[in-house]
Automatic annotation (TrEMBL):
<dbReference type="Pfam" id="PF14529">
    <property type="entry name" value="Exo_endo_phos_2"/>
</dbReference>
<dbReference type="InterPro" id="IPR005135">
    <property type="entry name" value="Endo/exonuclease/phosphatase"/>
</dbReference>
<dbReference type="InterPro" id="IPR036691">
    <property type="entry name" value="Endo/exonu/phosph_ase_sf"/>
</dbReference>
<protein>
    <recommendedName>
        <fullName>Endonuclease/exonuclease/phosphatase domain-containing protein</fullName>
    </recommendedName>
</protein>
<dbReference type="GO" id="GO:0003824">
    <property type="term" value="F:catalytic activity"/>
</dbReference>
<dbReference type="InterPro" id="IPR043502">
    <property type="entry name" value="DNA/RNA_pol_sf"/>
</dbReference>
<dbReference type="GO" id="GO:0071897">
    <property type="term" value="P:DNA biosynthetic process"/>
</dbReference>
<feature type="domain" description="Endonuclease/exonuclease/phosphatase">
    <location>
        <begin position="49"/>
        <end position="138"/>
    </location>
</feature>
Length: 477
């Protein structure tokens, strides 16, 4: 499966599946069996249940229809779409006379309020020289009216900040006059500092939006295909037509042997061309970076996007939507700060934190070398916080606007205030390997904070460690 796709299917020998790639809505799997896969999809303006189904022709269709009835009963949305290969014939979706399986499907659709979208005069599901068949169907519920578009449905092109655009962004920030004006002020309260940071993020987001570049789509086609292979394919096709049109049995046998040999040789050349092309691609990737995409695919290091599955509650029931699963994870895996459970030591700390910061003993302001050392030791591959400032951008911003960065960090130190915009983070739940996916204890939460906030936190930690070491509170070992 290409990178970026997520498969919703049964683990052992699935016959039905749902492929997901950057959907504009949230997805929660509802029912995953060998022959039926149902997923609840929810966006801001709409919601529906998508069902992929396959009914094998050599087995009774009743168990599959019973599973579909259970999906209809448990669906959180009245908008339901069924699509799949039912191996059933009926005049509702094909020109041929129906059979017993088709009658059962039609009865099920009538009982559940489904309508058949497929035109009976449409092209067959498959067609050979001797037979053709109409055995698949798409059935939405009657009240669902959504336009279906085939192809790339993204209205807006995805954009990203390239390395060149990042350098241009830093150049624009270096010439921005707002920084020189704001650094002449002296914030006297936490509200003033919050106001300055709000202005900074407005300026930064304005320039960031201007320098984002559209993501180029992958070039389609077969890069390993050559003109020699195209010419050889034409020769093989000509030999095939000559063999099929020959009426002489003796000559036909000779032409068949010649065609088979040419076809085998052509397939061998195609296989060799594919292998040589892939080897060159992998070698080029390895020369650029040993831990490239080729390495990750070869050693199983790729991480496809994951969907949050239904989770098991305390009473044994399962969640039915992604919002219920997220709420259950937050309730069971994230500690809630409550004064009702505070011991005496925490009560004292809470009172100290809420008291006004008024002291005659002021901390020494952060030095430029101190801040530069903290920023230089940031891992460059760390994820950005909600403000989309990466460690590389932070290093560049400190280089072009050193005075502003020092101004903000020292203002927070002088006021004894950690800004609210740096306290906000994104919580990501990482699955633990080898754990049951339906249990809440199988996920480890991490919080992605602002890089600005991480910088201030590490600066404060360094000051605290120095105080502990200077006063002998740290053991020598």
């Amino acid at each position: 499966m290409p990178e970026g796709f997520t498969v919703i299917a049964h683990k052992k020998d699935p016959s039905a599946l749902v492929l997901v790639r950057r959907p504009p809505f949230d997805i929660c799997p509802m029912c995953v069996t060998k022959f039926v896969v149902a997923a609840y999809c929810q966006a801001t303006a709409y919601h529906f249940t998508l069902v992929s189904v396959y009914a094998p022709p050599h087995k009774p269709i009743e168990p599959v229809l019973q599973t579909l009835e259970e999906v209809v009963a448990m669906s959180r949305s009245p908008n339901i779409v069924f699509a799949g290969d039912l191996n059933a014939k009926h005049r509702a979706w094909g020109p041929r006379a129906g059979d017993d399986r088709g009658a059962r499907v039609a009865e099920f659709a009538s009982a559940t309020g489904l309508v058949f979208l497929k035109d009976p005069e449409s092209e067959p599901t498959y067609e050979t020289a001797y037979a053709s068949s109409w055995i698949d169907a798409i059935c939405p519920r009657g009240g669902l009216h959504l336009a279906i578009q085939i192809g790339d449905t993204r209205n807006e092109k995805r954009k990203r900040l390239t390395r060149y655009a990042q350098s241009e962004l830093l150049g624009a920030l270096a010439q921005e006059p707002w920084f020189s004006r704001v650094t002449k002020s002296q914030p006297a309260s936490s509200e003033a500092l919050e106001y300055i940071l709000a202005g900074f993020y407005r300026v930064f987001n304005h320039h960031l939006k201007r320098h984002l570049r559209p993501v180029k789509g992958r070039v389609g086609g077969r890069s390993w295909w050559t003109p020699d292979l195209a010419l050889q394919r034409k020769c093989v096709n000509a030999k095939r037509r000559r063999f099929q049109r020959c009426a002489d049995p003796t000559l036909r046998s000779f032409l068949k042997q010649d065609y088979s040999a040419s076809l085998a040789q052509f397939r061998l050349r195609v296989k060799e061309a594919k292998r040589a092309y892939e080897a060159e691609c992998h070698s080029a990737c390895s020369r650029a970076n040993i831990s490239s995409q080729s390495y990750r695919e070869a050693f199983g290091k790729t991480r496809p996007p994951r969907l949050l599955p239904p989770l098991e509650r305390e009473d044994g029931t399962l969640t039915s939507t992604h919002l219920e699963s997220a709420a259950l994870l937050l309730r069971t895996q994230i500690a809630v700060d409550s004064t009702a459970t505070d011991p005496l030591s925490h009560t004292v700390i809470r009172q100290l934190a809420s008291a006004p910061y008024d002291s005659s003993a002021q901390d020494v302001p952060f030095t430029e070398n101190e801040v530069s050392d903290v920023i230089a030791h940031m891992p460059p591959s760390s994820s950005p916080g909600p403000d989309f400032i990466t460690p590389l951008l932070m290093k560049g911003l400190f280089r072009v606007q050193t005075r502003f960065v020092m101004f903000v960090l020292n203002a927070a130190l002088r006021l004894g205030y950690f800004p609210h915009c740096w306290r906000t983070g994104r919580i990501i739940f990482i699955p633990k390997p080898g754990r049951p996916p339906q249990r809440t204890t199988s996920y480890r939460p991490i919080c992605v904070n602002s890089v600005f906030g991480k910088t201030l936190e590490r600066l404060l930690n360094g000051r605290i460690y120095y105080i502990l070491w200077h006063n002998g509170f740290i053991h020598n070992n």
